[in-house]
Amino acid sequence: MYNIHSDQTINFMDPTEPEVGDLVKIKIRVPKILGQVKGNVFFTPEKNSKRYSHAEMIKEYSTKFFNYFSYSFKMPNRIMRYHFEINSIDQKKKIKYDAMGICEHRSLHDFILIPDFKVPEWSYGRVYYQIFVDRFYNGDKNNDPVNNEYIYDGKPIVKKEWNEMPDHLNGHREFYGGDLQGVLDKKDYLKDLGIEAIYFNPLFVSPSPHKYDTQDYYNIDPHFGIIEEDVDGKDKYKVRTTSKKNLNKSNELFKNLVDAFHEENIKIIIDGVFNHCGSFNKWIDEKNLYGEGVMNNEDSPFKKYFYWHGDFYEGWWGYATLPKLNYENMDLWNEIADVGIKWTKEYNVDGWRLDVADELAKDFETNSSFWNFFRKKVEQNSPNKLIFSEIYKSPLPWLEKKSWHTIMNYITAMDPISYFLTGVEKHNDNFRKDLYQNSEYFVSAVNWALSQLPMNSKYAALNQLSNHDHSRWLTRTTQKVQRLKEGNHDEASAGYDIDIFKVGLLLMFLIPGSPGIYYGDEIGLSGFTDPDNRRPYPWDNMNELNKQNLDFTKSLVKFYKSSDVFKYSSFKFIQWFDGYVSFVLWNEKESYLVLVNSNHKKEIKIHHNLIGEIRNPEIVFQTRNENINIKNENEILSLNLPEKIGVVVKI
Predict the structure, then answer these.
(1) DSSP letter at 513?
(2) Which of 188, 180, 463 shows the shortest CA–CA distance to 347?
(3) 508-520 core/surface letters (b: 16 or more CB in 10 A; e: else)
(4) Interatomic CA distance for residues 394 and 400, integer angstroms
(5) Taking a C-beta distance cutoff of 8 angstroms, is the pair 129, 190 a contact?
(6) pLDDT-based confidence at 105, cuts 50/70/90?
(7) Residue ranges with strand state E in 311-417
(8) Can you tell me the distance from the alpha carbon of 473 to that of 614, in angstroms, rounded to the nearest whole number?
(9) How many CA atoms lie within 13 A of 100 on its CB side?
(10) What is the pLDDT of residues 173-217, one digit of tens each?
(11) Alpha carbon of 545 to those of 521, 540, 541: distances in Å?
(12) Could you tell me which of 530, 468, 535 has the C-alpha nearest to residue 168?
């Protein structure tokens, strides 16, 4: 294996976010074992094009094991796609290298360089904490939903006690009473954990606990905020959620929360659900809460915001509670952009997470054009805000159009890590024996995913192992193929593997991206997929395992924040076989070797020519305490690697 490498960090490209007209230098590292070589860079005008131009690179400098070649060009006003070809004169072979690494034939994954594409630098490698507010902490019982307060999806809502488990059938009508005051009450806890950003699940007025069915985009739900004006009887919900006093007080509380966390240098990201709204929304107004929606006014100006089939609006995936919004209407574009501006400008929110963003509208051009419009409007009114999207496939077509800055990184983190370490799909819906402990699959999957992200998007992407849509990471380590059924909550943690749990966290933190902790994952909260993954945080019922996991997570966060290498650096896999992988992270100052073993113990030997010269290797982090002997002799680093462990070596 030839340890050729290039990327788009400052190690191999300058500047890293070029503007039109900038002089850009790109570099590639070539191992000396290839002998005398020539380096060429190939530029292609469009994706997968067979047409190209090429230029010979110059040899710039050498180290003990590597030669470095460079080429400079002026950034044009178009996307640049390029790959390399190394011609070994001594070995009489040509080696192509693209964003996925060495490729045998024509490059299919060119490096992508998008002119004038800027991602907020503060977002690189930031430690996130995701809060599903209703289940985090109840700081104000006066705003709690009450039993039978209203009918939702055909049945009355239910107020649960904090120590009760979600019901397998009624979970979308169950409320526990968590709120924004509860988040403020736990500010010191979050600060002590070491987080650097909070990503909130939706906060706007909505009849559900998850709030992905927005009722009012312009106000915080008083059930999360403050309820001062209240009544009993059939109008209770209407008064609680439409009273200007309640809405203004709730918005003010949210502003105070943003300010309080900003004082601790903790950023705030909120969830924007703009593909669809809810049937309670004032534009539809199915419950006649506002008196101005389509269902109560045939001539409502909001009718054009929706798709209609006769007298019926189209629901997202057929759900009547989720009317799909019609982006063929420019008034809706401006309305949603105004929402984006309001919360980033007036409330100083640091960015938006966009729910099912790739499903908005009915065609790609409308979709990507709207998101580009939305991003520009937000940035023009409040610069340096982050826009990232939920998407389960390659985001490159959208990023090339500058629709978003980055993504929720399912393709790089959650999917590959889960399959590699447990074999289990992220909902616990199936077990893939062919992917379990398959090192080659893991390396290929991660390299492909990283090739789909420009460098600045790569390190801002949100890595997670769990969230509100998928089973808990601890539960996946049980390797059960199962969902929540009546009374089987305990099965979600029976047979868990705590060593694999910790190895997964280490991988999620150190693979390029911004690590994200879903509330409760820091203590090893268990749960099958929705609704069981939304259990209340057990503040008063922590067991010894929870406390040990919390200590481990704190130590991992502290270690991660100890070096800028982990937040933004060059990344390269160097070895992979039999359930084991290792990779290197480095910048101009420091280098770290990460070794992960998912099964039985191994003796590992790594030649310096895979990494570069190693002088004083030192183990600086382990997922569990083990006596590991490390030697560095005759240009070979060797160590005994115990089973089911992750180890970080400073080199």
Answers:
(1) S
(2) 180
(3) bbbbbbbbbbbbb
(4) 11
(5) yes
(6) low
(7) 312-313, 351-354, 386-389, 406-407
(8) 35
(9) 18
(10) 999 999 999 999 999 999 999 999 999 999 999 999 999 999 999
(11) 12, 14, 11
(12) 530
- pLDDT grade for 104, boundaries at 50, 70 and 90: confident
Q: What is the pLDDT of residue 485?
A: 87
State CA 342 to chain mean position distance: 24
Contact at 8 Å (CB) between 403 and 421? no
In the DSSP assignment, the letter for residue 156 is E
* Residues contacting 406, CB < 8 A, separation 6+: 119, 123, 386, 388, 389, 395, 399, 453, 457, 458, 460, 461, 462
The class that CATH gives domain 127-560 is: alpha beta
Give the distance, in angstroms, between the CA of residue 52 and the centroid of all CA atoms in the same chain.
35
Residue-wise over 329-356: b if at least 16 C-beta within 10 A, else e?
A: eeebbebbbebbbbbbeebebbbbbbbb
State the distance between the two ends of the chain, measured CA to CA, in whole angstroms: 21
Domain 127-560 in the same topology as domain 13-113: no
Backbone phi and psi for residue 87, each to the nearest 5 degrees, phi listed first: -105, 105
Q: What are phi and psi of 543, to 5 degrees?
A: -95, 180
pLDDT in tens, 412-451: 999 999 999 999 999 999 999 999 999 999 999 999 999 9
For residues 102 and 4, is the Cβ–Cβ distance under 8 A?
yes
pLDDT at 272 exceeding the cut of 90: yes
| Residue 106: CB atoms within 10 Å | 14
Which residues, at least 6 apart from 441, have a Cβ–Cβ distance to it below 8 Å? Answer: 416, 419, 420, 434, 435
CA–CA gap between residue 217 and residue 339 (Å, rounded): 7
Angle between helices 415-422 and 498-510 (to 10 degrees): 150
Fold designation for 569-650? Immunoglobulin-like (2.60.40)
Assigned CATH for 13-113: 2.60.40.10
| Residue 270 token pair | 């909120």
DSSP H or E stretch at residue 581: strand 580-586
Q: Enumerate the domain spans of the chain.
A: 13-113, 127-560, 569-650
- Rounded to 5 degrees, φ, ψ at 542 are -80, 130
Mean pLDDT score across all residues of the chain: 97
Tell me the CA distances in angstroms from 338 to 346, 375, 396, 584, one per residue in order: 11, 11, 26, 44
179: region left, alpha or beta (phi > 0 left; psi from -120 to 50 alpha): beta
Q: How far apart are CA 443 and CA 577, in angstroms?
A: 10
Is the bond leading into 15 cis (omega within 30 degrees of zero)? Answer: yes
Token output for 598: 């998912």
pTM, two decimals, is 0.97
| CA atoms of 130 and 117, how far apart (whole Å) | 27
